[in-house]
Every structure is written in C-alpha cells, then in structure tokens.
Amino acid sequence: MKAEMKTLLERWSEFQDLSRALSVLEWDQETQLPAGGAAARANHIATLASVAHEKLVSREFRSALKKAEKLPRLTAKEQAMTREARREHRRAAKIPSDLVHAVAIAESRGLAAWRKTYRTNRWSGFVKPLTELVRLKRRVADAVGYRDVPYDALLDVYEPGATVKELDPLLGELREATAALLRKIGRSKRRPDRRILRRHYPQAEQLAFGRKVVEAIGFELDKGRIDLSTHPFCTGFDPGDVRLTTRVFEKHLPACLFGLIHEAGHGLYEQGLDPKLTRTPIGNPISLGVHESQSRLWENLVGRGRPFWRHFLPRLKRVFPRQLEGVKLDDFHFAINEVMPSFIRVEADEVTYNLHIVLRYEIEKDLVNGRIRPRDLPALWNAQMKKLFGISPRRDSEGVLQDIHWGMGLFGYFPTYSLGNLYSAQIYRKAQKDLPELEGKIAKGDLVPLRDWLRKKIHRWGRMYPAADLIRRATGAKPSPRPFVEYVNAKYGELYDL
Amino acid sequence: MKAEMKTLLERWSEFQDLSRALSVLEWDQETQLPAGGAAARANHIATLASVAHEKLVSREFRSALKKAEKLPRLTAKEQAMTREARREHRRAAKIPSDLVHAVAIAESRGLAAWRKTYRTNRWSGFVKPLTELVRLKRRVADAVGYRDVPYDALLDVYEPGATVKELDPLLGELREATAALLRKIGRSKRRPDRRILRRHYPQAEQLAFGRKVVEAIGFELDKGRIDLSTHPFCTGFDPGDVRLTTRVFEKHLPACLFGLIHEAGHGLYEQGLDPKLTRTPIGNPISLGVHESQSRLWENLVGRGRPFWRHFLPRLKRVFPRQLEGVKLDDFHFAINEVMPSFIRVEADEVTYNLHIVLRYEIEKDLVNGRIRPRDLPALWNAQMKKLFGISPRRDSEGVLQDIHWGMGLFGYFPTYSLGNLYSAQIYRKAQKDLPELEGKIAKGDLVPLRDWLRKKIHRWGRMYPAADLIRRATGAKPSPRPFVEYVNAKYGELYDL
C-alpha cells in the first residue's frame, strides 16, 4: 500500500475511533446510565461528536484524501476506500461544527425526554425537545443540500443514495400488495390459538433460552453481549465487540425471543465484517436497508419458519413444560405468525409490518418537509392508525411514542426497515438455491451454514459495494419487491388456507 | 465572570468532556467489554486520550489560560481555577503526543495481560507488557522532570506535590508504629472466632444487603450504579453518575461488604462535588490521598466500628439467620477486626494494611527508578512478604498479581492509600468533635449527618485547596500520622486486651 493511502487510513482511523467511542457512550446512555447522569452525558457526547466531526473535515484529512485520490493504479478496494472517505467527508464538510454540537445535545435531550414521556404518556413534555430536533435536522438537510425534498438529505445518511422519488412508488406497491393479502386473510375462517403465547413466561428463563438461540444461529458471545433496554437495539464497536439488547414481557413470549433473534441478525452482520478492514472507510455496514435485511432474515424467514421450530420447540418445551403442554408444532407456528392489526411495530407480523413503516414514513416526511408540526403528531398518528389498521391506540406509548427513533433525531431511518424486508426475501431465496438442503439443516438446528453463506455474500464486504450492487452480486438480480410479495403470499396463503 | 475567564472554562470543559468520555470507555473496559473487543478498545482509548491531550496543550487553550491569568481582581475561586488549569496544562505540555498515545495503548494491553495472567497465574505472560509500561512511564517521568527521583514525577499525578523525600520518613514512621503494635498483638492471648465469616453466604443476598448499606450511608443510587468487576473500584463521570464495583466470595463475607462500603466512601466524595463546578478546573477531587481518606473512613472508622454493627448486625442476621445464629455483637466486631498477616491488601486489617503499601511502594520506586526489572518482581515480592509478614504466597494471584494497578500503568498510586489512612483518622476525630453524639447516631443507623459533614468540609471543595490545606481547613491541624497511630493503638489495645 502506498504511503499516501496509509496516511489517509491513519486519518480515517482517528475519526473512526472517535465515532466508535461515541457509540460506546450512546450504548451506555441507553443501557447503563443512571438518571442523574443524563445532563453530563449530553455534554460528553456533544463534545465528542464535535471533535470527531472536526477530524473528518480537517485540513489534514482533506489533504490526505486528495493525495490518495490522485494516486495512479488504485486497487478496487482502495478505490472503494477513497470513494467512501470522500462521501463521508463531503457531507460532513457541509455541516457547521456548532450545528453538529447542537444536534448532539438535542439528541441526548430528546432521548431523555422520550424515555420520560414514554413512561408518563404525557406528550406535551416531548413537544419542545422534538420541535428543536426537527428544526435542527432541517438545518442539517438545508446545509447538506438535496434535489427534491429536505427529507432526502436525511435519508441519505442511513441509505446512501436513496430518495423519496424512488421510495414512494416502492412503498406504494408494498402497501397495495399488503392490502390485497390482508383482505384475503380477513375472509379466511382460520385463526391461530394466540393464548399459547400469552401464558406466564418468567423473565430469567426467557433470557436464558434466548441466549441459547442466539448462540445457535452463530452469534459469538465472547465477541459481544446481551443487555436489557427500553427499546431493543444492536450496536457494534468492532467485529469483536457487538452488543444486543432486548426487553422481556412475562405475559408475551414473542417479544424477547424474536427481538433477540432480530438483533442477533444485526449482530451477525457486525461480527461478520472483515476485521482487516475495520479501521478503513469500507469497514462498516453499507446501509441500514442491508443491515435490516440481516435482522429480518433471521427473525422472520428463519425464526418464524416451521423448520426452525421443528428443532427449537421441543427445547422450548423443556424450559416451559407447563405453559406449552400439548402444543403442537403447527399450532405454535401458526400462533407466532398470526396476522392481525396491532399497535406495536416491533411485534407486528410480517404482513402488516410494512404498513407500520408506511405510517411513520408519511408522517416523518411531512414533519421534516415542514408540512406538519410535532404537537399535532398524536392526532395524526391515531387517524392514520385508524385508516391503515382500523384500530386506535389507548395511549401514546402504544402509538406515536412507541419508537425511540424520533426522540433520538433519527428521521429518515424508518423506510430502511421496509427495504430490509424486501432484501431479506430476495437474499433468502438465493441462499435456498445455493445451499442444498438448507431447511433440512435448519430443522436439525444446524444454522451455521446459512450464517457462513451470509458472511461470504454480504457481511465481509462492508462498504466495498453500494447497497444495490451488493444485493445484485449476492443474489444475481437487482433489488425488487417481488420475492418478498411472493414469499408472504405463499406463506400466508398456506397458513390461512387462501 | 469576565469573558476571558469564560473562554478558559469553555476550553477546559472541552478537555474535561473528552477525559470523562475516556473514563466511560475505561469503566466499560473493566466491567462490560467482551474479550473480543479488547484490541479495538485499546485503539479507541488511545485516540481519545491523544485528542484530549491535544485539546489541553493546544494553542487555543494556552492563550485562553494566559489571558485569564492576566485578569485583575480574580475571585479566590477563579484563582484556584487558573492555578489548576495551569498545573494540568504545564504537565501535559511536556509530554509528547505520540507518547500519550503509546502509553494509552500499553495500558490497555497491560490491563488485558494482567487479567489473563491473574487467571492463569503465569507471570511470564505479563513480563513483556509490564516492561513496556515501565519503559514508557519512565519516559513520561523524564519528559515531565523531577528534582530527586523519576518516581516523584509519577507520584505527582495522584498526589500533587508529594515526593519520595516526604513519603519515606512518613511511611517509615508508620511501619515502626505498626511493627510495635503487631508485636504486642502477637503476645496477646485473645483471638476472634473467624469461622463466623467463612460460612456460606450466597452472592445475591450479599449484594442485596450491600446495596442497602451503601444507600444507608447516603450513596444515591439514582446518581450511580453498582456492578461486578475483577478488582473493585469507583469512578465518577459527574456528581450525577458515580459507579462502584465489587466482587463477591461466597465463603468470605467481608470482601463484598467492606469492599462496597469502601467504594461507596469514594462514591460519596464524587457525588458530593459541587455540581456548579463540575466543568471547571476545580470540579474534580483534589488528590487520591484525600479520596482514599473518604473510602477508608467509611470502611474502617465507621464500617468496622462497634456502633455501626449495633445497628446493622440484627439486619444482617435477618438475611443470614442460619450462618449468624447466636453470633454476638462483640464476636462479630472482633472477627471483622482480626489482625493477622495476610496476602490480600484489599482485605487486610487496618493494622497490617500499611505494610502492604510499604511493600508495594518500595518495589515500584525501584522499578521506576530503574533498580529492578519486571521479571524479578515475583521473587522480590515473595521475599518481602516473608520479611514483613512472615508468610509466602502460594500463587502469584495472591501475591504480586493481586492488584490491577501496575497492569494499568498506575505507578506512584499505592502510597496515596497510606496517606488516606492517616487523613481518615484525623478527619474522623474532628467529625466526632463537631457532631455531638456521632457514634450514638451511627448506632441508630443514622449515617447521613456524617456524610453531610464530610460533604461540607471536604467533598464540595473539589480542587479549591491543595490537599494539605484542605485537611488543615477541615480538621484545624496539618496532616499528621499521630491520629491514626493513636486510633489503632486504642482500638486494638481494647480488642486484644493489651
């Protein structure tokens, strides 16, 4: 590697170390921080965010980047490195340093306010910090620039290159396919026995079983942790340090279990990144859509599949013999796949899930683009819930307050969840072709071949290829909603006898 | 406050936010980090340490400091702020940035190596990282400068202004007084029944009781946490976020209990700092000697006193009714105060404790001053143990490997423990004068008056006064070993009927 390239990587790793230190502070903020430490932590995070930003926009960084870009005969990897370094630098350089600081403070305050409001259900306490966050994010969007709408400039952080223009028809198509399937399901006479999942499942046993499942799918616990948090998430500081969180409801088995499988899917992506690339501009996951494809693939395509429970149900019964007495595989499989309008996105079935995203996407677009105000969100939310699902939340914590995202300033994040759903079906279909007897193996609890295939096709590439390219290389086709629509139609057609 | 002073405080708080972010990463490193994350964390810490150092030695900081120093009519507080900012800046400016980075990497590696060696008892694996740490710390000492010996330059970080010249006679005096008392105790016929403390005490109950005690002495759990770690410690990121750790041995009651009281003593100091000063140069504890005076005061003067157990023994018996059946207050009090040669410093009695410090102090002085080599430490340690205590460790984990300090590069830290012991007796004696019926209150479990007195006399002052001044202001006398010697002579004279 040429000296100029090495210098760029040194500059980059300085920025990246600080970004990861920042992630550690944020993980701690969500899982460990005592209430009394919130204000101080906001300062630590804001200062660290500013300093990381300073490094990325510094003269030294820019000069190292320019010199590396001018080198003749860069390898394909080196080209990807300069491309990604340029992309990050370009965006950061447009945002003034004091705005970075203000956003970080507002995000910590928003998070604390969200947490409190979530507990108390008093929306009024959340309006001020949320308004401030929207105002600042809009300033960021204006600073960064966009062609069509400000929202695009935020979306770009999570899904580089994605735009409203592209997403609108995609989500529209999904919405229609979903509505059609839901109508058919509505006419079906078949209903699962959902009481199976609502018995008393003590916390400690749920967590212990969850850990075993997570290990079985190949998540390495000496390179990670599992903790509790209000809202489940996964964060990686290095392929050797990837942390999942979950939450447990003792009267609702799926929350902890599928939450953990979901986050472990994210975690496998983080653990599967190439350790040799971690301190380079291509050492991170390429996009949140791809990230979510990994979590949804494990949660749904694998974890809500019949083969998976052929292996795990007998084991789950050993932990909860009384609660699951006499429950047959088909009953259990149908219960964990019940399709019905529900309030909570993270616990929604695969069919209605994307409607939850449509709801959020429409609202946050209007919020960022200045068409609606934060104080009106609960009313708008509830009206949309009624329209899309036909139900009305009894309190905001099962409505507009359920997700942590807006409180943390994550606008433009939600649509990546639907992209993840689409990608997951497309990727899984290809895995089924490439791996002979895949579902037979899954039914024996042998999940590592799938993990290793994903590692080879997706994880290890980091940011080498843009998301759409990566999907194309992995699956042989460009990203399309069709595999997902076909998958849900087939699966739920069978379950509901359509 | 004048604009120049405000600018200095802004510069300072940037440095301080980064230092505290660093402490969060270190706390996480010791309590949460999975094994696979160690190498990456070393990088994060090293980069963050370098960036914090850059801020402290930057042209902007120096210029802000100079301007603030030139202001006429600074208040006493402002004078203390510029004094402390100057002291930190002066030291930092002498250490090259690459050395700061190298030290941070070596400390993380040393910590990981210590942890592994502690488990495996193979000293050979620790020699290389320790040698590197000694080499780098010596480079730091040479860069910073010293009048008499390199060790002084390291000591100064933990106990500003302290020197070997001052400590040698002080520790010599303590050693002699200890030896004299030990001879008398050796001739006494009285012996406690130590088996009381060696029964089976389950972990969960020990921790739950420990939490209650910690809360009773006034540690606020909404402004802190308690976690487990290999070596107990306390760290504060803000008066609102102070974290204690402990460890539990189910066959040895005192370790967790007195460990927690000790760390909570540190924690009270951190929680008692003036929140209005936290982001200024006088917002931190003044020295480790003063810090240790707080932990030792609570652990020993209060926690190993008869009045304390008059209140808590009946409560402890409710948790462990079988283990403590028929145990009388005097038996328990004697058992937790048994004086005898022992291997482990943190569990040593008050009398022999300072000999553990003498042992470490002599070895680390010679190590830093270049008179001995890391590979020879186990033999030297064991020879000194034999000489001072008449016993020989069976393995290094109960000998030279027991403490985390050297693995973390903390040379010059140990003697502050003995200073803490001396200060603690002097401070407690004054508290007894100032607070009428103090021990009567303690016997009723009313511990908060003492906490509040300490807060007023010690905690809230931060770095307003140098350590010796602070002790003088709090106690009316300059620091002296006499109160401590008189205290142990009286207490153990009674217990051992001397």
SSE topology:
The structure is a homodimer of 498-residue chains.
Chain A: H1 3-31, H2 38-57, H3 59-70, H4 76-94, H5 97-120, H6 124-144, H7 150-158, H8 164-187, H9 203-216, E1 224-228, E2 234-238, E3 241-246, H10 253-272, H11 288-302, H12 306-319, H13 329-335, H14 350-368, H15 377-389, H16 415-434, H17 438-443, H18 448-457, H19 467-475, H20 482-495
Parallel strand pairs in A: 1-3
Antiparallel strand pairs in A: 2-3
Give your account of this protein's structure:
2 copies of one chain form a homodimer. Chain A is mainly α and 498 residues long. Chain A has 2 domains: 3-145, Methane Monooxygenase Hydroxylase, Chain G, domain 1, CATH 1.20.58; 164-495, Neurolysin, domain 3 (Orthogonal Bundle), CATH 1.10.1370. Helices cover 64% and strands 3% of the residues of chain A. Chain A contains 20 helices and 3 strands. The first copy, chain A, has helices at residues 3-31, 38-57, 59-70, 76-94, 97-120, 124-144, 150-158, 164-187, 203-216, 253-272, 288-302, 306-319, 329-335, 350-368, 377-389, 415-434, 438-443, 448-457, 467-475, 482-495; strands at 224-228, 234-238, 241-246. In chain A, strands 1-3-2 form a 3-stranded mixed beta sheet. In chain A, a hairpin with a 2-residue loop joins strand 2 and strand 3. In chain A, helix 1 (3-31) packs antiparallel against helix 2 (38-57). At the A-B interface, helix 1 and helix 2 of A face helix 1 and helix 2 of B.
